[in-house]
Write a structure and sequence with these properties.
Elements: H1 3-12, E1 15-22, H2 30-43, E2 48-52, H3 60-64, E3 72-73, E4 77-78, E5 81-82, E6 85-89, H4 91-94, H5 103-116, E7 122-128, H6 135-144, E8 147-153, H7 160-172, E9 177-182, E10 197-200, H8 207-210, H9 214-217, H10 221-230
Parallel strand pairs: 1-7, 1-8, 2-6, 2-7, 8-9, 9-10
Antiparallel strand pairs: 3-4, 5-6
Length: 240
């Protein structure tokens, strides 16, 4: 096992399940779905971490209303607690400054985040992946080697072909897909793929006012719909 893989394996050995939220198109609501899954799991009694892997444009901190503070260090970085969730993001170091990174630099930052973060014991680590399946993301997947995927997309004619490509790539790589979530409406256009469709989330006009307020996010209509989606997955509801 190469040195990087060994270090990352050590950091993640206390994490029972690693679930990445992905999609081939930007703007389909991956961060919202990832953050709300983390909140829902915490509410069910699970211990949860959330890794914002979109290093060029992190936004999980905005969704959860994280207060800025430099993470503590103790033989690695201890992810701050935000609404009962361990949140790790490059935002803690870049703040709101732009991070114009290129391919290899993105890979190195992702690997560094994995190698230095002390997750401890978690039932779930939710990973908010950036759009697409670039070299950096494929390297990320290779190094972790035990990720399960939830694919998020919309029924828009502009998005459906990209979502189908995402599913095809993951299937070709023989990576486990827990299911597909159709966000921002119910067209049914994402059904019929080999991966299961967990359900659809209606467009919720109240979400903008709930961003930054975890208690409000948990009470949105789409949160209720997401819970129904997750009930199809064994172990995602009715925690310990």
């Amino acid at each position: 096992m190469e040195a990087r893989s060994a270090v990352i394996h050590e950091r993640l050995k206390g994490v029972s399940r690693i679930v990445a939220v992905t999609g081939n198109k930007g703007g389909v609501g991956k961060t919202t779905v990832a953050g709300m899954i983390a909140l829902m799991l915490k509410e069910e009694g699970f211990s949860v971490g959330l890794l914002d892997a979109d290093v060029t444009s992190p936004s999980a901190n905005i969704l959860l209303g994280a207060d800025y503070k430099l993470p503590e260090e103790d033989h690695g970085i201890i992810p701050p607690d935000v609404a009962g969730i361990k949140l790790m993001s490059l935002w803690y170091y870049s703040k709101d400054e732009p991070t114009p990174l290129r391919g290899k630099e993105i890979s190195n930052v992702l690997i560094e985040l994995l190698a230095i973060t002390q997750w401890g014991n978690l039932d779930f680590l939710i990973v908010d992946l950036p759009p697409g399946l670039s070299d950096a993301i494929l390297e990320f997947i290779r190094l972790i080697n035990r990720i399960e995927f939830i694919v998020v997309g919309t029924g828009s004619p502009l998005a459906v072909p990209s979502i189908k490509k995402s599913v095809q790539v993951l299937e070709d790589m023989k990576l486990p897909i827990l299911g597909i979530i159709e966000n921002m409406g119910k067209t049914g256009d994402l059904r019929g793929l080999e991966a299961d469709c967990l359900g659809a989330l209606d467009f919720d006009l109240d979400i903008e006012n709930a961003i930054g307020h975890p208690d409000k996010l948990k009470n949105l209509q789409i949160a209720k719909e997401l819970r129904q989606c997750m009930k199809k997955l064994t172990g995602f509801v009715h925690g310990p």
